[in-house]
Amino acid sequence: MLKKIISGYYSKVLFICIVCLCAVTAILLFFGSSLLRSQELDEYLQNYDIAINNLSSVLQSKENTFSNSLSPMFDDKSRNRALVQLCTQGLDSLTQQSQTQVTSLLETICRYDSYLGGVLILGNSGDLYQYDARYKTLEDIGLEKKDFTTPAFTVTLLSDSTLDSLSSGYEKPVSHVYGLAGTIFAYSSSDLTEVGRIILLYSTAELNNLTVSANLLPESTLSIRNQQGEILYSSDADYSSQDKIPLTFYDGSSTTGIVRYPRNTQTMDQETYYCASLYNGLYEYYVSYQVPKSALPASYNQTVLWILATGICLMGILVYAVSLRISDRRIKAIQEGMSKVGQNNLDYRLPVPKTNDEFTKIIQSFNYMCGELQKSVEKTYGLEISQHKAELYAMQTSINPHFLYNTLEQIRVQILKGNTADAAQMLILLSKMYRNQTRRNLYVSIGEECSFCENLINLYMYNYRNFDYEIDLDSSLKLYGLPKHTLQPLVENYFVHGLDLNRDDNFLSIRVLPLRREDGLYARFEVEDNGVSATPGELEQLREKLSGPVLQDSGDNNGFALSNVNRRLKLVFGDSAGIHASCGADGQGFLVTFTIPAVLPENLT
To answer: Using one digit for the tens of pLDDT, what is the confidence trace for 473-528?
Structure first.
């Protein structure tokens, strides 16, 4: 193939130009992709910069409003005295009223912040008390870390691990907390006397909710640490590691403001991370993040750039191979035409080009073949439809002799009984039915078929007067069609096999109900009586007969009418339209059902 491409002089020149174009495109792609990735990385990690700013703001807000949170300590002098007494003399020195005052004070402090889960009280007496906001109880849990202290009159951040080390009796209000420690003092008109420490226990859930709402990568980690490197909060809930991000801490000696560490990369455990940190010099804590490089989403712009670069190279090759492209286009057009014809689109013809080349001759031969194939298929289809119509008409006419014999026999009986008026009425009904029979149409509307059945039932009423009937036809289905004399054999089947002459409550019901399906409207037919029931063996034998062909000359007339109707329905509407026979309600009587699509008579073929 390469020898064919560079066989001529101009082919060699064009080939060299294409190679140069691809080389320049690759160089530009490399530098452009690097610039795009750097810009996208800056834009993506801005969300993390915002996230650590928000975390810092929440924590700074807690510390800024710490004194306001403790304001209930000074609103009531009696509660303040009770708290001072607790810090200086211990819990046993308090009266029941004083204990209630202290508990009420701590409850008031916790009330206005849903994330404040409890309070620790460290008195100068050396005792440690815990107030649980859930149970509103104050307990002496005992201070085990006797050398523990915090700077007086200064808000201090305490980590989860530091709080755990204070006492073995300490119980966390939630899984992870951090503490804000302040000074409890007794005040008079002249001076302030330090009497203990109060530590507010805040849940890290507020910080975690803020991290979750930022929609950051689950592989990334945001953390808050104090000046000593202790973890106050970690988004991955891992509070065991003291060096989650290897950053050089700012010592805080020259500023009390906010210092931001620039973003850099760190390698830990063979994984490269993008890291950045924010230091609050006033309250001495760090807010940091680390994002694994492998977890960052793929660059859409880089992908587009690669596609464009690849497209430029391909376009150069396609321009060079224009002659081959024309040939491929002609061949593809012929293949698409064959595919459409293969999908039974016999009306499709390939457009004939104006040029008189080999492809034109192939296209003309192909179109001629499609025309002949279409004629052959249409002829075969027409013969098949004619055969179905002939078979359907023969089945309908096979019903008439049996029906005529039964009706004439009933008229004869009426005349012998002297009921000439009834016989005349029966002749009128019979003439109406045979006038309809002489119509050569194979299909009638559902309304006409039900009217025909009612005439038939009225004829039987002259012979059997111990039954009643009901025809329930939904008005929306009257105009739709079905093969003529579909219901008549089902009605006759009742009078021949199902009517119980010893009963006065015989009942025959014909229901035609609309049924909505995904592919359109259907009509459901139910012909049910309360007469003689079929045995399970008879039902099984009948179902086997319905699943097979109609045997015209088998000599076994049992179930022939049902098989006839079943076959005609399948011829017109397909196999899914066959009838189903079963016992009626409560296992009594006989029920025949079938469902056909709602189609107008003139559209049935």
So the answer is: 999 999 999 988 889 889 988 888 888 888 888 999 999 999 999 989 999 999 99
pLDDT confidence bin for 555, thresholds 50/70/90: very low
Chain length of the chain: 605
pLDDT, position 559: 62
Average pLDDT over residues 111-132: 90
| Residue 147 neighbours by CB distance under 10 Å | 4
In this structure, how many other beta carbons lie within 10 angstroms of the beta carbon of residue 379? 10
Please report where in the chains the tokens 């016989």 appear, as a residue. Answer: 423
pLDDT of 189 reads 60
Closest CA to 260 of 232, 288, 234, 293: 288
Dist CA 32 CA 26 (whole Å): 10
Classify residue 586 by its DSSP letter.
G
Residue 170 tokens read as: 């300490």
CB burial readout 531-541, b (16+ within 10 A) else e: bebbeeeeeee
User: What six digits make up the tokens of 19?
Assistant: 């190679």
Pair of tokens at residue 69: 């949170």
- For residues 337 and 342, give the distance between their C-alpha atoms in angstroms, rounded to a whole number: 9
- Rounded Cα–Cα distance for residues 17 and 13 (Å): 6
Q: What residue has token string 């992870």?
A: 176
Query: Helices H, strands E: what count in the chain?
Result: 17, 18
Q: Name the DSSP letter for residue 130.
A: E
pTM of the model: 0.48
According to DSSP, the residues that pair with 580 across neighbouring strands are 593
Which single residue is written with the structure tokens 């080999």? 358
Residue with tokens 């039954």: 467
Given a contact cutoff of 8 angstroms between Cβ atoms, the answer to whether 216 and 51 are in contact is: yes
